Structures are given as C-alpha cells and as structure tokens.
Amino acid sequence: MSEQLKTAIFEKLKNLQDPISKMPLDQKNPNLSIVIENEKALISLIIDPNEKDKFENFTTDIKNSLQNISNLQSVNVVFTAEQKIKTSNISSKKFNINAKNIIAIASGKGGVGKSTFTVNLAAALKLAGNKIGILDADIYGPSVPRMMGVSDKPKANENNKLIPLISNDIKCMSIGFLVGVDTPTIWRGPMVMKALEQMYNGVEWGELDYLLIDLPPGTGDAQLTLAQNSKLTGSIIISTPQDVALIDARKGINMFNKVGVNILGIVENMSYFICSNCNEKHEIFSHGGVKEESKKLNVDFLGELPIDKDLRIGSDEGNPICISNPKSEIAKKYFEIANKINLRFK
Ligand code: ADP
C-alpha cells in the first residue's frame, strides 16, 4: 500500500517545480524525499535557507496537488537546509562514542532488508571477534529490538546514562526505547537531533570496535544530523534490484556524497531465490541491477544476498541467522561481507 501511495504522490508532484532550482518534484529530484507511514506522507525537500521566503506558498501548493489521492490521510511538508559543509573537515563533533568505526546502514526506501542486514552484519562482525554495538535510529519503524530479541526498557546507571541491552554479546540501543515502538510520532528536525544525541552521549556504550547504525529509510533529518554531528566512518547502502529501489538508493548515495560521508559500498538484498523443491535459481525482483548501478556510481559492490526463508524467520523471531545457523549458505554470505569490512579497517 505505501508503495502505491508513493507512486500516486509522485504522479501528482511531478507537475510541480521547486521555485528556485526549477527541478520538477519527481523521482529523480535528489533533494526530495517521501516517507509513508500508516497512510500519512512526510515530504521533505532540501532548500537553501537564504531562499526560504520563496517557499512560503509551496507547502500549500504541494498539499493542494495531493488532495484527491484516496487513502492518503495526511500530508506533512518539511523544508530542510542544504548541507554545504563537508562534514569530514569538522574536527570537533557534538555526538561522541568510543567506537573505532561507526558505520551507518542506509536504504533509499523501507522494506528492503536494512535492519535484517544490520543485525546479521553485527552478528558476523561479533563472531569475527569484534566488540559490537547497534544503534537503532530508525525513527519510522525501530525493529532492532525485535530482531535481536530484546524487549526490556534500558536502565540508567549512577551517571544517569542508559545501559544498552545485550543480546548475544552485542550491545543494543533503540530510539524505540525512547518513544515506544508502537507510539506514532511525528518527528521534527530538532526532536530527531535531540533523540540521536541522547543515543550517543546519553548511553554507556563502553569501548566498541564497531557501532552499526540502522538509519531510517530515505534522506531525511536523521542522516543529516548524524553526518554533521558524529564521526561516521562510512555508510553501507542496501537496495533490492528493482528500478524503484535503485532510484531511491541513488538518492541516498548522492546525499552521503554531498555531506562528505564515505560510502563503503552497496549490497543487493533479495537478489534471487533458490527453490528448495527444484533447486533452481529464480530472479524474482530481477537480479544484478545493484552491481550494474554500483559501477555507474563508482561505489564498491559488497555482495548479493538471496531471499531466504530461514533468514526471515530468524530475524522476525529475534534470532539472527548468523548466530543461530552460522554454517548456512546465507550466513556465509554475511561472513563474506563482514570480512570485506573487517579487512578494510584492521
Ligand atoms: P527495512 O529495515 O529495510 O525496512 P527489514 O530488515 O525490516 O527491512 O526487512 C523487511 C522484511 O523482509 C522482514 O520481514 C525481513 O525478515 C524480510 N527480509 C529481509 N531480507 C530478507 C531476505 N534476504 N530474505 C528473506 N526475507 C528477508
């Protein structure tokens, strides 16, 4: 349903133009991102703050153009400031964690397997002997607690810092613990900033080799806040092979390039399916699109992961397959990717 709504929204918005750049609000617009949650749309557009007066009526234009879309319950339009600073040049960062590497896991759209990837990469890196933390920053659908099988509320220590929950020797902290996983929240820029700062400075992470951050899908405030305020080692982009997912992934790559965050590579998830009856390989969402795209974008291709029923069951039941069945074919694929990452930072 959310994909249909998104398509219907783009169909209407493509007739509008950004008043300054004159770019149409279509799928190719790198400044535009749309997130659908419970039939509500959050539309964000990156603008030059010096030109903000020219956008005064633009919210109304956007909302008016979307009036007749059935099932669309509400529209929230946000204009965010363009990031002109190369963040890697900033030496002092506001958000601090004692981690050797901080890797953000990103995707252009939801449902492509970003959280599943995060928890299994965490498990694979852990089994390779690293100290690991996962920060679940997915404000639209925090799912790391469920996938790691932790549900308690984190407690505070004597310094008033939250103690991460531990699952399989991996430290976990989720933005869902702050707001409740099922509480609908409309996040505004300053709220995102405050919550993320708390996830960094207000948590007793201890020493880590890797902190993996499960980002919300798209190119919104959380991505920009982290790029600006924390020392990100780099980002990994997860995409499925279809064109629609790739278009959004490309936007994510453009955004990270714009804000000076290193892209460690891109992964194709749900690449193909091996049928357990006929043992044949079925390319359900087509296959290979991400590898092709990575060449065009000059980004490393980290690997492809098939559709795997046990992987799905494991992550939905709080039991990442890299821990429950490390000898499985799918787990081996994760170990290969973890190895590539590990080799780069050892
Ligand atoms: P995202 O974080 O991108 O929204 P999730 O990681 O929550 O996506 O994955 C969405 C659903 O797809 C989950 O039910 C998950 O178990 C399933 N899934 C993810 N990757 C795979 C895969 N390779 N094979 C089978 N199911 C998968």
In short:
This protein has 346 residues and is α/β, with parallel strands linked by helices. It is built from twelve helices and twelve strands. The radius of gyration is 20 Å and the shape is globular.
Q: Could you walk me through the main structural features you see in this protein, from its secondary elements to its overall organization?
A:
By secondary structure, this protein is an alpha/beta fold. Helix content is 34%, strand content 23%. The strands form two sheets. Strands 4, 5, 6, 7, 8, 9, 10, 11 and 12 form a nine-stranded mixed sheet that branches. A three-stranded mixed sheet has the order 1-2-3. It is globular, with a radius of gyration of 20 Å. The model is unreliable at 84-91 (pLDDT under 50). Adenosine-5'-diphosphate (ADP) binds at residues 107, 110-116, 143, 269-270, 305, 307-308, 311-312, 315-316.
